[in-house]
Amino acid sequence: MLKISFLLPLFSLIVFPVQNIIENPKKPLKTNSGRVIEAQEVLRIEDKMGEYFFRMPHNIKIGQRGEILVQDNKQLLLFDKNGRFICNLFKEGQGPGEMLSMTNYQLTPDYIIIHANPPKVMKLNYRGNLIEEIPIRSNERLSSFEFYYKGKYYFIKTDWTKLAGHEKIINIPKKLLCYVENENNLSTLADFPNRYFIAQLAGERAIIQVDRFITTHWLKRFLAVSHTPKYLIKIFDAERGEVLHSLRRNYSRAKAPKPDIEKQPRISIGGKTYTKPVKGYEDDILGMTVSGDDLWVLTSTKFEKTGILVDVFNLKGEYIDSFIIKFDECFPQIIRERYQLTAYKSHIFAVIINKKDQYCLVKFAIDLKS
Fold first, then answer.
1. C-alpha angle 80/124/129, rounded to 5°?
2. Does residue 295 lie in a domain region?
3. What is the pLDDT of residues 96-154, one digit of tens each?
4. What phi-psi label fits residue 224: left (phi over 0), alpha (psi between -120 and 50 degrees) or beta?
5. Overall pTM surpassing 0.85 (yes/no)
6. Are 197 and 277 in contact (CB under 8 A)?
7. In the list 68, 76, 142, 282, which could disulfide-bond 254, CB 3.0-4.6 Å?
């Protein structure tokens, strides 16, 4: 029997006509683009003994009333707008309102939607009480919940049936699936090929993800997807049930730093060790977040110990702005292969490491007009 080993980061090919790719120039539309924006710390949330402990905080989301949520290892921590801890929404078990693990969650004005295992979707209010629980009866293994819109749940599933080859890099489709509420069926709406390194030896198989796969929910009905090492974003529209368009811009790629061999992801099979393939350039996109109606792209252009270059696009796919967010002392961390940074009104929230070498969550004030 073939034994498969996976080394993945912690989260039929569609060919797009040329007219669906929106090409953007090197410079954005706004004349004051490229400005430096100072991030001023206004709130810090750190470990609190007996209540919660940050192990690998990620997936920050902000509610309409300013509630702060952050996902962690068997934790979905809820804080009020002032950073006061309210509760951990992750209740371990297999009963109603309980879960063994979770993939992702979505905020609505009235409740929190959580995709959990055993396979189900739960709706909780902002006090942690269960409103509704919907079992997902399907043979498909869903990698991650993306968003809910008009009675439909959208998931990503990695298509492992496409595995083939020996010690080489191949494209593995990540399928966007739709699950209709009260119907036990899944339909495939789009595929996003993502590169993996495949090795097979002595009846075992090693799988190492090569390129980042980053998604973000945008304006209720849209999903922005980055699935290649180069600057390319595809926008899926749930209203139309298809990819609306792709966008990219003329971007100067950042050379990848020399890797620390000891810290390189690796896996051993059959007495042989494989490490993640070394790339000459960083992936162009290291994160995405939404601010108002606009999509922020967190790029690989980094000003060491000072700032990150952020590109801004509107829903038409136009490159409208860019700026450098400058951090004085604490720099946002890359966790699960992406910057853990979320925009909300005139603030950003980011996971940083404090002077005690511990993770914490910081709220920064920013002035986009400066």
1. 85
2. yes
3. 999 999 999 999 999 999 999 999 999 999 999 999 999 988 777 788 999 999 999 99
4. beta
5. yes
6. yes
7. 282
